[in-house]
Design brief:
The complex is a heterodimer of chains A (about 270) and B (about 450). Chain A is elongated and about 90 Å long. Chain A has 14 helices and no strands. Chain A is mainly alpha-helical and about 270 residues long. The N and C termini of chain A lie far apart (about 60 Å). In chain B, the strands form 2 sheets. In chain B, strands 13-12-11-7-10-9-8-14-15 form a 9-stranded mixed sheet. Helices cover about 35% and strands about 15% of the residues of chain B. Chain B is α/β, with parallel strands linked by helices and about 450 residues long.
Chain lengths: ~270, ~450
C-alpha cells in the first residue's frame, strides 16, 4: 500500500468571507461590479426560516408584499402540505406571483393540487393559463386530458401549443388518439408542437404498447412532418421494425462501368 | 521539475487569445491561416485547432450563436479559427452583446454578413444553420439545449448544463430523442493532465479504486443555498430592444429589474445559479470518468461537518457520496495540494494521483516513474474540446462531454447540493430517479419554469 495522500497545504478554495451578499461565485477573480445594498424589505432569509404556518399566513395576508409572498411560496414548494394549496392557488392570476404560486404547487404531491389546477384552467387566459397548463403536464394529471385536448384548438397559439405539449407529457392511449387527430387538423405554429408531443407520447407508450407506439412513429415518419421529428421517428423505426422493400429509385449500373466492374472490386 | 513560467490565469489566457484573435482578424482569414506563428508549420491556422486532411472537399458546418459574451467569446474565436466552420448569425437579448459578436465575426471574415437576432427562436428556425454555440448564463442552458435538439441542431454549449435533476434528465432525453450531437463546455476532458490522471485510474494502475475526489470550491460557499436570495431595489426596466429583461430572466421566477443581476452575473442568486456545478461540471465529470461511473450516480450523499446550517450560507464543506460498488466520491472545497483550480484526486489500493488546472500532476511514490518527464503548464484545452465536437458532428458519434454523461454529472452534483441544503444523509435510486424516503428532497429535484416557458419532457418530478 503506498503512502496516503496527505494534504499538507492550507485549505484552499473556500472563497473568503462567505455569507455576505456580494461575495458571489467568481469573487476574487478580479474587479467586479460592486454588490448593491440589500434593502431590508428584500432580504429573504428571515422568511426562509419561518415555519409552514407562518409562511401560509404571509401568503394569505393581503398586506404582505410581493417579495414576502414570493419567498414564502418558494419555501412552501418544499414544506407546504394540503393546507398550502388554496392560498397559493389564489395567486395564480397575479401578474407577478403566478409563477411563484406554480413554483410552490408543482412539486406538492397532494392530489388536491391537481383538482385545484383543473378548476383554475377555465378562469385564466394568456400567459397565466399557459403556466397552469404546463404545470398540469409536468404533474401528469390524466384527468385533465379532456380539457387539454379541447385547448389544442384554442385561438391563442401559445395556449394551444402548451396544451398539446402537456397532453404529450401526460401520455397514454387517450393522449395518443387526441394528438394523432390533432396532427391532421392543426397548422403552424401549433402543428410542430403537436408533432413533438406525439413523439413524446410514442416514446412513453413503447414499453407497454409497442404496436401502438410504432403506429405513431410510422405516422410521424411521413414527409409532411417537421424534419427533426420525422428523422427521430425514422431512427426508431429503423431500430425496431423490419426494413421496407428495396429502394425503388435505385437500379444497378449499366454500360461501360458495369462491364468493367463484372469481375468485382479486384478487377478494377 | 516543473517549468517556471509566469503563471497564466484563465482570464489572462483569454486576453492573450483575444489579442491573437484580433490580430488574425485584422489580417483576414486567408492570411490568418497562411502566416503561422513561430514553431508552427506554415499553412496552419494562427488560432484554433489545427485542421488536417482534405476538408476543402466538404461543405462547411454552418454555425449560429446564442448568448455569447465573456467565456463564449473564447469559444467563438476557436470556432472561427477552424476552416470547417462558417459562423453566420448571433441571437442575444442584449444589444451590446449582439453587436460585439457581429463585429468580431464580420472583422474575421472581412464582410458584413453576420445576422443579428433579438430572439433565439429566430435562429432556431433557420434551416441552413447546422450547429449552435450556446453560451448564455446557466438558467438558459437547459431550455436552449432542448430547443436546439428539437430543431435538429448540434450544439456546443457552456456549462453548467441544467439547473435541476429533472432538467438534467430532460436535456439528455431530448438530445437522444432527436439524435443531435451535444458537447458541454467541460473542456478539461480534453486537457492532458486530467486525461493522464483519469488514465491511471481507468487502466488499473492505482489498483482497486477506493475514492475519487472533486474540488467543488465555488458554489456552496457563495450561493445563498437556503434563503433563496434577495432582491435588489426595483429600477425602471430598460428598453427591450436594448436589453430584454423578460427574455433574460427566461424560465426563472420574476423579480423587479435591477442592473445588478446581469452586470454581476449569476453570482449569489439561487435563481440564476446551478449550485455546486460551477466547478462540479468539470471535476465531478472527471471523477465519474475516472471511476467508470459516467452512466449512473452515487446512491448515498452525506454532508460532513458542523458547518451546514441548512438554511443559509455554507462555508468549508465536504460531501461524501458512495456508488453501488462502494467507491466513494468526495466533493470538497478545501485541503487540496494547490495544483490549481478544478482539482481532482483519485485514490486506489496501489497509489494515488492528483492534478489541477496548473497542469502539474502529483502521484504516490510508486507511480512516479510513470509521470511525464516534463510537467505540464496551465493551458486552455478549449481548442481540443471544440475540435473533438466538430469531428463528432461529422461522425455522428458521442463526444467526451455528451448529454448523457453530462446528465449524470449534473444529477450527482444536484443531489449532493440538495443533501447539503437539507443537511442530512440522502439515499438516491438512479433507476427510479428519486430519493428514497425523503419527500422534501424529492420536491427539490425540479424547478418550475416561469410561464410561458416549458420543458417538453417525460422526465418530471411526478
Amino acid at each position: 500500500m503506498p503512502q496516503t495522500p496527505v494534504q499538507t497545504q492550507p485549505p484552499q478554495g473556500a472563497p473568503g468571507a462567505q455569507g455576505a451578499p456580494g461575495r458571489g461565485a467568481g469573487a476574487g477573480r478580479g474587479a467586479r461590479v460592486p454588490a448593491p445594498q440589500v434593502p431590508p424589505e428584500f432580504d429573504g432569509l428571515v422568511i426562509w426560516k419561518m415555519e409552514p404556518a407562518k409562511l401560509l399566513a404571509l401568503v394569505k395576508d393581503p398586506n404582505s408584499t410581493v417579495f414576502q409572498k414570493a419567498i414564502a411560496c418558494k419555501k412552501l414548494s418544499i414544506v407546504g402540505g394540503k393546507e398550502a394549496v388554496q392560498p397559493m392557488a389564489a395567486l395564480l392570476d397575479h401578474p407577478q406571483l403566478s409563477c411563484y404560486a406554480r413554483f410552490g404547487l408543482e412539486p406538492n404531491p397532494d392530489p388536491s393540487v391537481d383538482e385545484t389546477l383543473r378548476a383554475w384552467l377555465p378562469k385564466l387566459s394568456g400567459r397565466r393559463k399557459v403556466g397552469v397548463i404546463t404545470t398540469i403536464g409536468v404533474r401528469k394529471d390524466a384527468k385533465a386530458l379532456d380539457a387539454l385536448t379541447k385547448l389544442i384548438d384554442d385561438s391563442d397559439a401559445e395556449v394551444a401549443g402548451a396544451a398539446a405539449a402537456s397532453v404529450g407529457m401526460i401520455g397514454g392511449m387517450q393522449a395518443s388518439r387526441a394528438l394523432e387527430a390533432a396532427l391532421g387538423r392543426t397548422r403552424p405554429p401549433v402543428f410542430p408542437v403537436v408533432a413533438r408531443a406525439t413523439l413524446l407520447c410514442a416514446e412513453n407508450l413503447m414499453p407497454a404498447n409497442r404496436t401502438r407506439a410504432l403506429e405513431l412513429y410510422t405516422h410521424l415518419s411521413a414527409t409532411t412532418m417537421p424534419g427533426p421529428v420525422r428523422q427521430a421517428a425514422l431512427r426508431v423505426l429503423n431500430a425496431n421494425t423490419q426494413a421496407p422493400p428495396g429502394a425503388k429509385d435505385w437500379v444497378p449500373p449499366t454500360g461501360e462501368a458495369a462491364e468493367k466492374d463484372k469481375s468485382g472490386f479486384l478487377g478494377r | 521539475m516543473a517549468e517556471e513560467k509566469k503563471p497564466v490565469t484563465r482570464r489572462g489566457f483569454g486576453k492573450a487569445l483575444a489579442q491573437a484573435g484580433a490580430a488574425a482578424a485584422a489580417a483576414g482569414p486567408v492570411l490568418a491561416q497562411a502566416q503561422a506563428p513561430a514553431g508552427q508549420a506554415p499553412g496552419q491556422p494562427a488560432i484554433g485547432p489545427v485542421v488536417v486532411g482534405n476538408y476543402s472537399m466538404t461543405d462547411q458546418l454552418v454555425f449560429g450563436g446564442i448568448g455569447i459574451r465573456g467565456r463564449g467569446m473564447s469559444d467563438l474565436r476557436q470556432l472561427l479559427g477552424d476552416n470547417r466552420v462558417k459562423f453566420v448569425a448571433i441571437a442575444d437579448v442584449r444589444e451590446s452583446a449582439r453587436e460585439m459578436v457581429k463585429s468580431t465575426v464580420d472583422n474575421y471574415y472581412k464582410n458584413n454578413e453576420c445576422v443579428m437576432y433579438r430572439d433565439p427562436a429566430e435562429i432556431l428556425e433557420r434551416k441552413d444553420i447546422n450547429a449552435l454555440l450556446i453560451a448564455t448564463s446557466d438558467r438558459w442552458h437547459g431550455p436552449m439545449a432542448m430547443w436546439a435538439a428539437q430543431s435538429g441542431k448540434d450544439m456546443y454549449i457552456e456549462k453548467p448544463a441544467a439547473m435541476s435533476i429533472m432538467e438534467s434528465y430532460a436535456l439528455a432525453d431530448n438530445v437522444k430523442r432527436y439524435g443531435v450531437v451535444y458537447q458541454s463546455g467541460a473542456q478539461r476532458k480534453n486537457q492532458y493532465a486530467f486525461e493522464f490522471a483519469v488514465g491511471l485510474a481507468r487502466s488499473g494502475k492505482l489498483g482497486r479504486l477506493l475514492e475519487v475526489h472533486a474540488d467543488t470550491a465555488i458554489g456552496l460557499g457563495t450561493v445563498d443555498a437556503g434563503g433563496h436570495g434577495w432582491w435588489a431595489a426595483e429600477t425602471p426596466e430598460p428598453d427591450p430592444l436594448v436589453f430584454n429583461w423578460d427574455k433574460w430572466l427566461g424560465p426563472c421566477m420574476w423579480r423587479p429589474w435591477n442592473s445588478a443581476y446581469p452586470d454581476r452575473g449569476r453570482g449569489e442568486f439561487w435563481d440564476f445559479h446551478a449550485g455546486l456545478l460551477e466547478w462540479a461540471s468539470h471535476t465531478v465529470a472527471m471523477a465519474q470518468w475516472a471511476a467508470d461511473m459516467e452512466h449512473t450516480e452515487p446512491v448515498e450523499y452525506e454532508p460532513e461537518g458542523g458547518q451546514f446550517r441548512g438554511d443559509g450560507i455554507i462555508g468549508r464543506y465536504t460531501i461524501n457520496c458512495r456508488y453501488t460498488n462502494g467507491v466513494k466520491l468526495v466533493l470538497r472545497n478545501h485541503s487540496w495540494r494547490l495544483l490549481g483550480s478544478c482539482s481532482n484526486l483519485f485514490v486506489g489500493t496501489e497509489g494515488w494521483v492528483e492534478t489541477g488546472d496548473s497542469g502539474r500532476i502529483e502521484v504516490s511514490d510508486n507511480l512516479k516513474p510513470l509521470l511525464p518527464t516534463k510537467q505540464g503548464t496551465r493551458y486552455d484545452p478549449t481548442a481540443e474540446h471544440i475540435r473533438e465536437f466538430l469531428q463528432c458532428i461529422r461522425s455522428r458519434t458521442a463526444p467526451r462531454a455528451d448529454a448523457e454523461k453530462t446528465c449524470h454529472t449534473h444529477v450527482t452534483s444536484h443531489a449532493a447540493w440538495i443533501s447539503a441544503q437539507l443537511n442530512r444523509k440522502l439515499t438516491w435510486d438512479p433507476a427510479k430517479r428519486m430519493f428514497l424516503n425523503d419527500e422534501e428532497a424529492n420536491r427539490m429535484r425540479s424547478r418550475a419554469y416561469r410561464e410561458p416557458w416549458r420543458m417538453e419532457a417525460l422526465a418530471t418530478s411526478m
